[in-house]
Amino acid sequence: MRALLVRLHRWLGLGTAAFLFLAGLTGAVIAWDHELDAALNPSFYRASTAGAPLPALTLAQRLEAADPRAQVSYMPLSVEPGHTFVVRVEPRLDPSTGEPFALAYNQVAMDPATGVIQGRRMWGAPSLSRLNLIPFLYQLHYTLFLPTKVGIDFGVWTMGIVGMAWLLDGFIAIVLAFPNLKSWRKSLAFRVKRGGYALTFDLHRSGGVWLWGLLLVIALTSISMNLGTQVVRPVVSLFSTLAPDPFRTAAPGPALTAAEAAAARTRIVAAASALGRREGIAAPPGGLFAMPALSAYGVGYYAAGNDHGDAGLGNPWLVMNARTGEVIARQIPGRGSAGDLFIQAQFPLHSGRIAGLPGRIAISFTGVAVAMLSVTGMLIWLKKARARRKSARKDETEARPVRTRERAAG
């Protein structure tokens, strides 16, 4: 049985090593994506002028008026003092072709006091420029920039399958790390003084043991981040009733026209505070997310700048029918079935934000450790592969005279 587990561990590890190396290093960086992006690009995040900010709807309207090809898909409803008003945009449909306009950007930073555009970029573009570096690493972490073909997002599926292989390998690894009760101390030790292969082996085995719980959490949540709808929600629903996914609940009626969308956005922003209080949400409306294909808007409730959620299970979200203003779905942290709470915990656990600053530090450290485990695993395999080849050549050399004598005798 152990021989089979060793082979499984070897091939699962080799099959996922390159992916986990990339995911570990990029994950260690993007645990601090907001801070690093702002430090690298102060002109994109710091407002040029002081003064009271204009209303969020006014800023969005000015942006859309400046470029009628673009429509705001996400915007904050308040901004931190001294910060820019950063929105996401998507192209409108060209009425002459029925296809989306070609936009060279999908994120815009505006001076909130004047409405002047301070910067534009294509968030997630494959570029190592200062303006695009952190979004590029974020996108690389989740998708590897693999294409979407015949309706299949190969990046999402690849990382999801890697997560499943990693989760299985984690259980195999912990069994192999403790072959018997007498040798348990060896599985926790690092032979630093010996160095060389002994230390490489200990970094891989003992490092994995010390971090085993964290590694398992990241492996599980990586499946949820990529294949939540396809895999995780169906599996969880076998054990617990789940509320509808608030971002995939279709509202009735055809898609909104541009005029209808603008009017609906104004109505929903005006009603958001009252709707939040009615749902028992203490935080103010913090962001508006447009879902035009579903004739709906999502409102997130959080203080300015806290769109990721600083701690706990994240921010509350309500999804409203754009035509009627009716709440058609809700995701309120801490409410719902056991399955709902499990689903709510996935991103906060994966990002470490469930534990605030200490959690993010732990996730960043673990990301580096994942890269280290991938490298040490490859080094161990290479050394053992060389030893197997050397042994095979020796056996062949020793067997050759015997075969020669047997042929002579025959």
UniProtKB/TrEMBL annotation:
Stretches that traverse the bilayer: 154-178, 209-228, 361-382
Chain residue ranges for the region called Disordered: 390-410
Stretches with biased composition (Basic and acidic residues): 393-410
Key word Ubl conjugation present: no
Alphabetical UniProt keywords: Membrane, Transmembrane, Transmembrane helix
Transmembrane helix is among the record's keywords: yes
A family per Pfam: PepSY_TM
Protein name: PepSY domain-containing protein
